[in-house]
Task: structure prediction
Amino acid sequence: MKITIDRTKCEGYAKCIQASPKVFKLDAKMIAEVIDAKADIDEKILLAAKICPTKAIILEEEGTGKKIFPVE
Ligand code: SF4
Result:
């Protein structure tokens, strides 16, 4: 799963880090970044994206680029 964080949307709530601390962390500017996209199961990463209050986490299928979250 390809994880992209829209840094213009992230407001540092750290919900994603609570959901999946091995994948997400806050950088020095208190904006989320991906440490290791493969460090957790897809369900946890999807949960992190879903609970992000600003919908800053974009998930796509590796290879196909198919959007997993958010879906319009
Ligand atoms: S939950 Fe969303 S807003 Fe909060 S730190 Fe993670 S990406 Fe940023």
